[in-house]
Write a sequence for this structure.
């Protein structure tokens, strides 16, 4: 069965904007969305900065009563799904609901409501806990709510694999469509884990940047002066369709999703394998499934977290797969401007990779002033570049040793 899968719609909400066009325009301009946290007072925390979605009001797209019964991570997912569906022009009322699906990944689920209700439990007793706690908290609810919104009865579940969650959702959706188990799937990732509790946890791991006085300079992937990633929130959603299905309804195609690689490190709970065996396997698998050569790859949207171990490992993985072609690749990190969306990163960065192919533009890696030890690729520092991009990869790696590579190519009919 040779079923091809294409992207016909995209949606984004990030620290740079509430939709895909705004985020994309600001990325190309090199703007930075990292600021001091405003949703709560971070003054007593060691880390006080994040890639926060500013001034978000879900009610223009989500009913007020419904929105009150949703954690922020689920609001983000439904918000971006509606953008992607509108963008694709698909009318699910005219589709066979059993041939459509929803897969949205998240790393942490409804931690905002969990933390708030736990405090209520401790201070006011068990009877004061909201009856909506469980449905608001569980990670699969983003997918569930989107399926309810559109009456979709096909594949419907959530992938949870830390920072690879969104990419796993996109890749698994690709495979389900290829296998003939669905014709259309809304896929991506979402996260809203900006709470005092979670920030303290990441901070105590020494995983996130403490550059509180210079938030816009805090996320600096591959730079010698980096001191950790910057936690962020947001969502990225794609509408994936089987090519013939999309063609019959005259849909605009952004790019083709041609390959999906996935692997495990089997190394450590949080640290990546320094030999990069797992990421190399995922990259090779994605390229092979796309039936293209390594030399065909033009651009890699890197996982690029701004941590020493990850940046060195990813560079080593790229060199291990591409050899001498590595020096011809353009590699950039969206996290340098958005921060790290955790489970939402893979979905958002997949959207950004698709837009790079569509427009022939690669956004820069912000704050890269002096490459760190072991970081010797062309990371597109300083400003956006332009060229035709025929094949691009998006890497996502997560705690637990989860590795995903998505291979997108320019659609040529």
């Amino acid at each position: 069965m040779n079923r091809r899968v294409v992207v016909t719609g995209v949606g984004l909400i990030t620290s740079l904007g509430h939709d895909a066009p705004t985020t994309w325009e600001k990325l190309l301009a090199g703007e930075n969305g990292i600021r001091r946290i405003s949703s709560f007072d971070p003054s007593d925390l060691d880390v006080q900065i994040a890639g926060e979605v500013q001034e978000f009001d879900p009610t223009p797209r989500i009913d007020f009563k419904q929105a009150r019964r949703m954690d922020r991570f689920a609001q983000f997912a439904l918000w971006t799904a509606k953008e992607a569906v509108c963008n694709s022009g698909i009318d699910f009322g005219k589709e066979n609901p059993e041939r459509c699906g929803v897969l949205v990944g998240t790393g942490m689920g409804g931690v905002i409501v969990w933390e708030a209700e736990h405090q209520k439990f401790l201070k006011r007793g068990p009877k004061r806990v909201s009856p909506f706690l469980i449905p608001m908290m569980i990670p699969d609810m983003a997918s569930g709510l989107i399926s309810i919104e559109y009456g979709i009865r096909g594949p419907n579940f959530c992938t949870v694999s830390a920072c690879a969650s969104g990419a796993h959702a996109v890749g698994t959706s690709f495979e389900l469509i290829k296998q003939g188990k669905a014709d259309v799937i809304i896929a991506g990732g979402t996260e809203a884990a900006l709470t005092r509790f979670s920030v303290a946890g990441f901070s105590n791991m020494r995983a996130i940047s403490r550059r509180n006085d210079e938030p816009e300079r805090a996320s600096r992937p591959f730079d010698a002066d980096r001191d950790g990633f910057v936690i962020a929130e947001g969502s990225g959603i794609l509408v994936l369709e089987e090519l013939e299905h999309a063609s019959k309804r005259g849909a605009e195609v952004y790019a083709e999703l041609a390959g999906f690689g996935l692997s495990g490190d089997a190394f450590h709970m949080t640290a990546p394998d320094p030999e990069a065996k797992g990421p190399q396997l995922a990259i090779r698998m994605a390229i092979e499934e796309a039936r293209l050569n390594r030399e065909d790859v033009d651009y890699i949207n890197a996982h690029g977290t701004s941590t020493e171990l990850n940046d060195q490992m990813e560079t080593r993985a790229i060199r291990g797969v591409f050899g001498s072609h590595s020096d011809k690749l353009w590699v950039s990190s969206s996290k340098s401007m958005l921060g790290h969306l955790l489970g939402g990163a893979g979905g958002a960065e997949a959207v950004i990779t698709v837009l790079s192919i569509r427009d022939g533009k690669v956004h820069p890696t912000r704050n890269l002033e002096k490459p760190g030890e072991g970081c010797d690729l062309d990371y597109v520092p300083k400003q956006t570049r332009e060229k035709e991009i025929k094949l691009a990869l998006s890497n996502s790696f997560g705690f637990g040793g989860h590795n995903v590579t998505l291979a997108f190519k320019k659609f040529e009919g």
